[in-house]
C-alpha cells in the first residue's frame, strides 16, 4: 500500500465493516514526551518539526520518529512510545515497516536491469512473463513502463479484492500465505469479471495499483534468476550500507523497532498490535523494513547517481499527474512528486508508505538540499488531527 494508502484502504474497511470513525485516543503519559537530538552542526534548531511531531502524538499516534537532513547536517527527533505495553519511548534508530517506499527500491532494480539491457521499458510484459496477464485486448499491451508508472489499468488485488471482500482483512492478512502469482491472479480475475480500470496507457488516466509492482517483482526474478529480496539486497542495501534495512520473508520485525497499532474495534476500544505481519500479501508492494536514516541514505544515493545511470534516473523522475483526487501530486517510475508540502517551492520527490500499523514519508527537495523521513506507528485509523500534524512535520522539515 502507498499513495492511495490510508484513504483507499480506510474507505474499503468502512464500506465493509462497522469500524468507527478514527479519533484521538488516550495514551500513556510517556507518549507525549518529546525527544530530539541536535544536528551535526549542534544547532538542534528544528522546533517547528518537533512541535508537529508532538502534535501527532497528542492526536493519538502512539509514537513517531523523524530524520531531517540539510546538506551535511542531520537532525533526529522522536515523540511518544514505541511499545504501548511497556511504555518504551521511541528511539531515533527504531525500525519500522516502510510500506510502499518499497516500490522505489523495486523500481530502482528494474531500471538497473533495463540499463543492463535485460529488458526494455516499453517491452510488453507478456514477452518476459508469458501467460501471467491474459494476452487479450488489454493484457498484450501492458508494458514495463506502464507498470512502473501505474498506467496499466490493472485492478488492485489488495484494495479492490482482498480488503474489499474480507470484513476483517487487516487481521486475517497477518497470517496470509499467498504467492505473488496468486496475488496477480486475483487482480486478473477481477479484470475478467468486471473489466479493467482503464485501457493500458489511456490518455489522462492514472490509477495506483499494487498489482503493478507484484508483476514487476516477478519480472526481476525472471530476469535475474534470483529472488527479489536477494536482488534488492545485492544491488541497493549492501552498496549503500543500509544496515537496518531488509526485505523480510517472515512476519517478525527484527531488532529495536516501533510496534505498529490500529484501533480496529473503534476509537474507545483497545488497540490491535499489528507488529508481526506476514509479508505474503504485500511482497514487492510494501514489505521493506527500514529506519529513517537508511531511507534518507537510499534517496540520497539515488539522487547522487550511485544506483542508476543519468538516463535511467531521468526516466524515473519523469512525472505524470495522478488522478483528480490527488491535486498537486504526480508519479514517475516508482517515485512520487508532491507540490503540496511546499507550495512556494518546486515539488518535492520521494515516496510515502502505508501499511497496517505504520505510516512513512520520505521526501527530498528538488534541489536536493533538504530531506526528511518520517515514520509513525499508527496509520489507517489515525485521526484527522494526526493527519494534519503529519503533513506539518514534512512541510516544516522541507520548506524552511
Which characteristics define this entry?
400 residues; alpha+beta; Beta-lactamase; 9-stranded antiparallel beta sheet; globular
Uncertain residue ranges? 11-34, 37-44
Q: What's the average pLDDT?
A: 90
Q: What do we call the CATH topology?
A: Beta-lactamase
Structural class: alpha+beta
Corresponding CATH architecture: 3-Layer(aba) Sandwich
Strand count, sense and closure of the main sheet?
A: 9 strands, antiparallel
Query: Secondary-structure element sequence?
Result: HEHEEEHHHHHHHHEEHEHHEEEEEEH
Please bin the fraction of helical residues. Answer: 25-40%
State which percent range the strand residues make up: 5-15%
- Shape field: globular
- CATH class equals Alpha Beta
Task: Describe this structure as you would to a colleague.
The protein has 400 residues and is an alpha+beta fold. It has one domain: Beta-lactamase. The chain has helices at 5-16, 47-58, 102-115, 125-128, 144-149, 158-165, 169-172, 180-194, 210-224, 228-237, 283-286, 292-303, 310-316, 384-399; strands at 34-37, 63-70, 73-80, 96-97, 261-262, 272-273, 289-290, 320-321, 329-331, 336-338, 348-355, 358-364, 370-376. A hairpin with a 4-residue loop joins strand 9 and strand 10 (336-338). The longest helix has 16 residues, at 384-399. It is globular. The chain starts with a helix and ends with a helix. The model is unreliable at 11-34 and 37-44 (pLDDT under 50). It holds the Pfam family Beta-lactamase. Residues 50-387 form the Beta-lactamase-related domain.
Amino acid at each position: 500500500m502507498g499513495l492511495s494508502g490510508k484513504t483507499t484502504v480506510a474507505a474499503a474497511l468502512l464500506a465493509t465493516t462497522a469500524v468507527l470513525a478514527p479519533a484521538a485516543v488516550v495514551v500513556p503519559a510517556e507518549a507525549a514526551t518529546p525527544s530530539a537530538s541536535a544536528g551535526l552542526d549542534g544547532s538542534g534548531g528544528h522546533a517547528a518539526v518537533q512541535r508537529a511531531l508532538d502534535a501527532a502524538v497528542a492526536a493519538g499516534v502512539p509514537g513517531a520518529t523523524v530524520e531531517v537532513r540539510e546538506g551535511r547536517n542531520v537532525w533526529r527527533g522522536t515523540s511518544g512510545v514505541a511499545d504501548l505495553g511497556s511504555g518504551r519511548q521511541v528511539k531515533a534508530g527504531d525500525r519500522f515497516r516502510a510500506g510502499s517506499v518499497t516500490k522505489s527500491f523495486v523500481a530502482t532494480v528494474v531500471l538497473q536491469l533495463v540499463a543492463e539491457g535485460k529488458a526494455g521499458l516499453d517491452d510488453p510484459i507478456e514477452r518476459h512473463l508469458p501467460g501471467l496477464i491474459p494476452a487479450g485486448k488489454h493484457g498484450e499491451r501492458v508494458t514495463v513502463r506502464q507498470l512502473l508508472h501505474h498506467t496499466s489499468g490493472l485492478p488492485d488485488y489488495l484494495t479492490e479484492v482482498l480488503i474489499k471482500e474480507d470484513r476483517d482483512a487487516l487481521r486475517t492478512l497477518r497470517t496470509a500465505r499467498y504467492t505473488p502469482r496468486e496475488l496477480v491472479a486475483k487482480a486478473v480475475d477481477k479484470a475478467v469479471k468486471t473489466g479493467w480500470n482503464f485501457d493500458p496507457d489511456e490518455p489522462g488516466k492514472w490509477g495506483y495499483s499494487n498489482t503493478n509492482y507484484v508483476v514487476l517483482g516477478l519480472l526481476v526474478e525472471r530476469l535475474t534468476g534470483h529472488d527479489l529480496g536477494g536482488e534488492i539486497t545485492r544491488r541497493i542495501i549492501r552498496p549503500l550500507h543500509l544496515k537496518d534495512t531488509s526485505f523480510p520473508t517472515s512476519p517478525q520485525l527484527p531488532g529495536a523497532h516501533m510496534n505498529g497499532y490500529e484501533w480496529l474495534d473503534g476509537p474507545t476500544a483497545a488497540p490491535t498490535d499489528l507488529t508481526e505481519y506476514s509479508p505474503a500479501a504485500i511482497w514487492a508492494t510494501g514489505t521493506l523494513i527500514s529506519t529513517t536514516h537508511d531511507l534518507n541514505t537510499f534517496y540520497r544515493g539515488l539522487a547522487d547517481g550511485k544506483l542508476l545511470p543519468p538516463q535511467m534516473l531521468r526516466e524515473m523522475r519523469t512525472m505524470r499527474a495522478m488522478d483528480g483526487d490527488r491535486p498537486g501530486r504526480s508519479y514517475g517510475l516508482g517515485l512520487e512528486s508532491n507540490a503540496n508540502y511546499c507550495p512556494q517551492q518546486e515539488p518535492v520527490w520521494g515516496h510515502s508508505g502505508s501499511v497496517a500499523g505504520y505510516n512513512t514519508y520520505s521526501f527530498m527537495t528538488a534541489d536536493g538540499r533538504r530531506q526528511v523521513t518520517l515514520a509513525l506507528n499508527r496509520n489507517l485509523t489515525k485521526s484527522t488531527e494526526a493527519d494534519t500534524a503529519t503533513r506539518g512535520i514534512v512541510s516544516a522539515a522541507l520548506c524552511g
